[in-house]
Each structure stands twice: as C-alpha cells, then as structure tokens.
Amino acid sequence: MVTVITSISLDHTAQLGGTLELIAAEKAGILKAGVPAVVCVPDAGPMEVIRAKAQELGAPVIDVTKFRVKNIREDLLGTRFDAELNGFRETLSSCGKPNEKEPAFQNVEISMDGRHQISNALCALSVIEVMRRAGIIMSDEKILQGMKKAVQKARFEILETSPYVILDGAHNPAGVRALTDTVLTHFSGKRILLCAGILKDKEFYKMAEMLTELRADLILTNVPNPRTMEAEELADVFLSFDLYGKREREVWTVPVCAEAIALAEARKTGYDLVLWAGSLYLMGEVRRNITCRQ
Question: For the whole model, what pTM was predicted?
Fold first, then answer.
C-alpha cells in the first residue's frame, strides 16, 4: 500500500556503498510500481536518486521535508507540534487516489525526545494518511493516542531522573549528531558523565569529536561484542582533542562493561546527567543491569 524511506546516513557502508547516493540507490529498491512512497531525505543528491527510481516505477513521492511544522514545544517528557502535510493531496491525486483536502494535525504529542523524532513522526502520519485514503478507518483521536504511546528502547530513554540516567544507542555520526543536539537542548551547562563504548568498524573519530561538545567527564568501556574498539584505544581518540588531552575533564578507562556500570553508579551523584551512548549492544547490557537493580 505504501513504502517509506527515512533519513539516509553513512552506515553499513561495506554492504550499502560509500556515498549517500549509493546508499539511496539500495534503499530505493523498496519502491514499487504505482505505490505511493513516503520519503524523508533532505539531502539533494540521494533525493534525486530516489526520485529517478520513483519516476521509473510511476510511484508518487510524498516528500516529508516539505511539510509545515509549527508551534513546537519541547521538554524532557517529549515534544508537541502542529503539522500540515502540504503537497499530499496533489501527490496522491496523480495516481488516482481520492484525497479531498490537505491533511493536518493539531497538538501532536510524541514521547521520544529530539527534533529528529518530529521527522519520524511525520513519516508515520504520512503512512497513516495513505492508508486512510485507501479505505482503512482510523480516527484522529486514535492516531494521536498512538503517537503519544510510541516509544523505542535505548533511544534517548530516561531510566532514572535523580540524577538523570539516559540511554541512547547512537552508533553512527548522524545518530550522535542528533543525540548531541538533544542533550545540549536540555542539559547545556550541566554536569554530564558520558559513558561510551563504540564498535571499531564505526566512524569513531567523527563520533567522538561530536561528543566532545558535551564537555562531559568520560567513562570508556568495551562493547560486549567481538567487534568492540578497546577502551584504551577509544581513550586515545578522545585524548586527541584538547578538552581531554589537556585533562580539563576526567577520563576513566574501564574495559569490563560490568565494572564501568558499577563506576557510573558510584559516581552519578556528582552529575546532573549520566549518559550512556555509542552502541546498541552496550545499551542492552546497561539496560539489563540497571533495570534488574530497580
């Protein structure tokens, strides 16, 4: 009934290709002849690749980046916004889909934090609108309830609040950029303890460079996965940046994950935020340990 392509970033490059355009070409393989495609890709190069494939298949493209989002209200409990899905009616009318008016939603509330989650929510709303216009009955009330209830573990997941303990499985530069921006929105100027582990086949230098913006103390550990970057190696990366090379912040290297979790627990009262990041494998281990304690 509908296909979806969300944001494209450089990840899994060995399988998908080393450029955004090559990755877009692989992801465009999901497009189907005559089937509406919801696409949220702001970069011009990969978007051109997707549009070319869609035109070849006669698949109308609903470009989520063109929607109007207004009245954004953010806090640590989530985000509220109004959305106008402009261009929706014209796109679907081109493939004979009945569409009486441009869809709009007021006071959409999502529980997952970060501006990038607004884009994800707009993709979901677009899919729902395509399905509704194909005859599937869903009320606005139920849709808004569903948007509020939607959560994803280890995606800016708040486990504790005094101090805050937050898990985010950001494991590529795009994910780390979104995480860093979200943390700076809510915890700028606060005392932050960043606990991180990264796989050695990721773009660890770029990720570490972004994470230095948090001006956090560090606990670095091994990811419970054979592809882990050793904690000492990761420490060398962070120490290559002035903030840590000059030891303006504390840096602890604890290779054993369980011991790193214990150290973070022992040190957390000195911080406003304990943030775990860098790998979903690490998030699983931390989450199991903390929720078992609770």
Answer: 0.82
